[in-house]
């Protein structure tokens, strides 16, 4: 069976794996759409500003 240090290593591995999984879920659901939406809004503002300067 497992010795105590092997058991602690296994628990550390499961902890790191679980943290990585939830971080991936968080990034996929909140951060990436926020980043894409911000980039689209910024691009729209730049195009609108360029069109406004062109009309002046």
Give a structural overview.
By secondary structure, this protein is mostly helical. It is built from 1 helix and no strands.
Characteristic key phrases:
single chain; mainly alpha; 1 helix; about 55 residues; rod-shaped; about 0% strand; about 95% helix
Protein topology:
Layout: H1 4-55
- H-E order: H
- Sheet with most strands: none
The overall strand count is: 0
Q: How much helical structure, as a percent, in the residues? A: over 70%
Distance between the amino and carboxyl termini: 79 Å
For the CA atoms, what is the radius of gyration? 23 Å
Q: What would you call the shape? A: rod-shaped
Q: What class do helices, strands and sheet pairing give? A: mainly alpha
State the low-pLDDT regions, or none: none
Mean pLDDT: 94
Q: Kindly estimate the percentage of residues that lie in beta strands according to DSSP.
A: under 5%
With helices defined by DSSP (H or I, 4 residues minimum), what is the helix count? 1
Give a short summary of the structure.
The protein is mainly alpha-helical. 93% of the residues lie in helices and 0% in strands. The mean pLDDT is 94.
């Amino acid at each position: 069976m497992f010795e105590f240090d092997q058991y602690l290593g296994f628990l550390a591995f499961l902890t790191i794996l679980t943290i990585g999984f939830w971080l991936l879920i968080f990034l996929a659901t909140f951060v990436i759409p926020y980043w894409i939406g911000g980039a689209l809004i910024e691009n729209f503002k730049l195009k609108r500003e360029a069109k406004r300067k062109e009309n002046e």
